[in-house]
Queue: 2 jobs
Job 1
Amino acid sequence: MIKIRIRAIVGIMIFLGYFLIYVVRYNLSVHLVDMVQMSKREIERITLKSGRNDSIRKVFDSRKGTILDVMFWDEIKMAQLFSAYHIGYCVCFPIFHNIGDRIGPTWVVGIAGMVSGILNCLTPASAYHHFWSFYLVRVIKGFCAGAMLPSMVQVLRHWVPPFERNHFMWAYCGITTGTCSTFLICAAVHFYSRWPVGFYVCGTMQILWSIAWVFTVSDSPRKHPCISDEELEYLNNTICNVFTIKLTNTQAPWRLILKSVAFWALCVLNFGYAWIIISLCIHGPLYYTQVLKYTLYQASALTALPFLLRLILGTIIIQMFYYYKQNGKIKRIKYIRKYTIFVSHVLPGMMISILWLFPAIPGPTILTLAVALTAAGMDSTFDICYEITPMYVNSVNTVIKIIGNTSGIIVSLCVGENTVTVWKNIWCFHATILLLCGITFLFWGETDVQPWNSIKNRPRRKIFAATARPSAMSNITEVEEDDSTYHTIQSQNKRSFLSQIR
């Protein structure tokens, strides 16, 4: 008889949660290409039919708020749409932990996933209505993702013992799997239907997942109705107390953390990693279709290919690394983490940035190879964060992710101001950022537990001024141990003490 482990089901649900978050996050990168191309084709059709350019303006005025409104979205508006998601994600951090502690991280994930799925289904209607309604929908979807990601990490900490972390790393692979699948799913939708269907499909999947999440996942093993006594006892004996997000955040010594060089080196490392990944996800389809003149389906496949390679290589590297750590017979290699950072950051950055010296534009081969090499650093941020601060890993990792997601805002707005002729400089600049971030960690990064990990930030207690009152025992006088005198004074002091009490 096969025993169903509830913690395995929780891991599968978290994998699917990461998968759908990143599908919703990057589906606009593919759909926007087709939206713009559709509008251009309609402009050419109307112009050839009427023979006058003013008819285009009349059609636009009479149908404003419909699909023809999309063709007037310039590069700046497109950049604003890409950055809106990351703005919502970064704004969510100050408030998510309070809600998560009140209603539980499971309900935070379920409600946020439901809202995100519904808004994804409403995305075509908001695009038809007005640009800023579309912008607002993107901001709220980013807000929902900012609430879901750290809450799912908190749930996983309740269900996975520390020595089983390497067996559950596949749950985090939902991020790369979702990124890779986004471009393939959206391209398939465009082949068989129109772009609004892509938003409906992704939104429906996230709604169904959020319903299943609420019924199959609980905040902790003790609250799950279907867990076996054997698994519950095992998890209770192997998992220590997991503090709430709010308690962990308030007890974290943030003054010492913000002064820590190791913390900022890890922030810089994740910032460069997120910069190159977000750059390809956002602008890969546009770059391949508008500059290199590939079809939408070819561009989607080329954008998905490096993430497929990252998924395969990253899974192999993670398992090899944990096997190396747990096998005591293998000779320890000093600074092994920094060797992997060299492969994931320095080497890809050099491969692309060196094109600044040659009259060549980065093609799909070099971009695919460079992004695939970043697999050596897959999950390195969270793992290094766990190594330097096991106590405050969730709080510190969330701040690091927030800082890393600001790269999505910067990348979107910077590229939106540029034209096609400067795409070579854009990719070389992205690679230089990755290179410099990797070098920064090689010089100043650390992988040992930091001294501030064992320090708790206790809130200051209020000190009240009190007026000292004379004690009844102050009337006692020292005397010689003469019996008669001693008993006389003792009886006087006793009567005086009783009178004060009365």
Job 2
Amino acid sequence: WTEFKINRTRITGTLVLAVFTAVLGSLQFGYSLGVINAPQKVIEKHYARSLGVWSERMPGNSSDTGDSPDLGMHPDVTMYWSLSVAIFSIGGVLSSFLVGFVGDLRGRVRGMLVINVLAVVAGLLMGLCRSWKPHIMVISGRFIMGFYCGLTSGLVPMYIGEIAPKAYRGALGTLHQLAVVIGILISQVIGLEFILGNDDMWPLLLGLSGAPAVLQSLLLPLCPESPRYLYILLGKEQEARTSLLRLKGAYDPSEDMEEMKREKDEADREPRVSIFSLICSSTYRQQLTVALMMHFSQQFSGINAIFYYSTDIFERAGVSQPVYATIGVGAINTIFTLVSVVLVDRVGRRTLTLVGLGGMCCCAIAMTVGLKLQSEYSWMSYTSMSSIFLFVSFFEIGPGPIPWFIVAELFSQGPRPAAIALAGCCNWTCNFVIGMTFPYIQAREREKKLPLHLLHSHLLNLLFIFPPQVFKERSSLSEKRWR
């Protein structure tokens, strides 16, 4: 019996393979998020050339670097470039509602396998964009890739949450965010001008967005289906038991089967919960409030503003190569996500979230003061730079990774797909709003010479840190997990 108890928390090779294969979709998500920014000037030049508003013989243009004083000012180029960036989030918003449908239709593993077709098609469209009109093909590819990422950002945490042993559920759930930040870092590194972010190789840089889907498609047939899906949704007890044995090795699965039986009985007693029913139901209001507030706070924390603004801050601080400092921010992002993997099951979800948001708020204040006063006091530039690194560190400790897997932990099998779909839509919608409004806020604050947008982004966080009722763990289902 002691051996059985040990095996119940053992990390097996099959479990490692299943989690690694799943988070390849998260890696692709992160790569797609970051890949579009590095070659911006080069892509704008090709857009302008395709639209007939720029040529090699125009004075002041450089065929090597793509620099042009008037290039970014042309309204057609600006419109198509903005659409290339924003269309990714639009695809994610639309597909986030389909996460539960795709996951339940053919299963978690087959669902991830089927949607890889979207990623491959998107990668081919962007990789072959020079063969036709680059702006049309890139925008089409980005939309399809966003549609894919909206699905995978829900399916991956759902699958990992259902196959992970209780003792490692938080740590394994954090791997989704870890893969995302690693993907962002990879895109920043290979997007450097001397690697792929240049006039000749930028289509390959964008086309590589679909590469992880190819590897994932080869590995997914080796991964066991979620035992919770097999037993609770399909009623296949023997298949669920076999899946548990594959994931956890030789052990007595009776306790896990009994837990799933209780959840299945509970799910059978309650009707299938739709998104509308979930919103209107008072039964799930507590869990839904926590889930949505966490996704709101993740996006409105200002983390994207930091990534957009970090290069400018480093330039103003006198850094000779600000692009490498920005890559350093990506590296810190990755390192502290690893720290979260270690701490999340020991310290708790709630504590890490509150510490992370509180630390980010303090860093935003320090950064604002540093940027305002660095023209008067040279040492304030170091305050600004330090605040950036600490800001990212606090984000990845809790507010970054936890919202992606906490939804699956807070809800039972019945309302879980609807909750994940609603939370994903919330996250993607906030992402789109930030992507569209940040340049205007930044321009406005630059006119005032005070980057208050870093503080504006934390108004919601202050409400999140000191809510009157949100964090009273009343739900018997989620109390221990959330704590």
